[in-house]
Amino acid sequence: MTISRPPQRTAVITGVGAERGIGRATAHRFARDGWAIVGLDLDGDAAEKLAAELTERYGVPAFGAAVDVADEASVLAVRDAVAAANLPTVGAVLNIAGITSPVPFLDTTVELWNRIFAVNVTGTYLVTKAFLPDMIAGGYGRVLNMSSVSAQQGGGVFGKTPYSSAKAAVLGFTKALARELGPTGITVNALTPGAVDTDIRVHGTTPEIEEAIVKSIPLGRQASVDDVTSLFAFLASEEAGYLTGTTQNVNGGSYFS
């Protein structure tokens, strides 16, 4: 399928700091497709370095900045900085930033629980709310939220109860907002990846556990970052304009819904 390129718009992407992470790979994919990029991460140096790299490699406008997605003042400050940068109109928001913790449920604290919800859920809310008016005014918008297969089947043995719960909340947010924004033409969708081949590994995994995970996947491999970014690219395109409120299972068949 050939994905048509709309007039150049800006994609706001959170969680771009990890060298081989999904956020960074998504920024590269969108820049290659002609989007201007706003890359946001708690690590501002990494975000700024990525922006320079994207402009040099793809010739697109790019802006990188530090943000704590869970902090409203931080999000609003970066929204104002983006507005002052005179980039093309925002056409997509990709909420990829997230955190987890391998702490067994009975060892969790309220502080840990709240922080995981703050980054994964409140961060998705704050960044979407900050840039949504630009998309509505521009007449084009795609909100793409990163959830997880953990939201659908639990986090297994890795102590992911807070994370699974937060990612399930992201799915609820996606469906509710999709219904509310339907009359505006703005679409809202979620991705629920399973195991993805990045440098980020769940604490406590071993080669034996990794092998068992792969064996449990009907397609016989972990997802590549390209498997995820290509779906993001499609959902942000004009061709995907009639898809909203959906949960896209990028898991090689490890979970069916």
TrEMBL record:
GO-annotated biological processes: fatty acid elongation
Organism in which the protein naturally occurs: Nakamurella multipartita (strain ATCC 700099 / DSM 44233 / CIP 104796 / JCM 9543 / NBRC 105858 / Y-104)
Keyword flag Oxidoreductase: yes
Assigned protein family: Belongs to the short-chain dehydrogenases/reductases (SDR) family.
Lineage: Bacteria, Bacillati, Actinomycetota, Actinomycetes, Nakamurellales
Domain of life: Bacteria
Keywords (A to Z) from UniProt: Oxidoreductase
GO molecular function, one term: oxidoreductase activity, acting on the CH-OH group of donors, NAD or NADP as acceptor
Protein name in UniProt: Short-chain dehydrogenase/reductase SDR
UniProt signal peptide: none
Pfam families associated with the record: adh_short_C2 (PF13561)
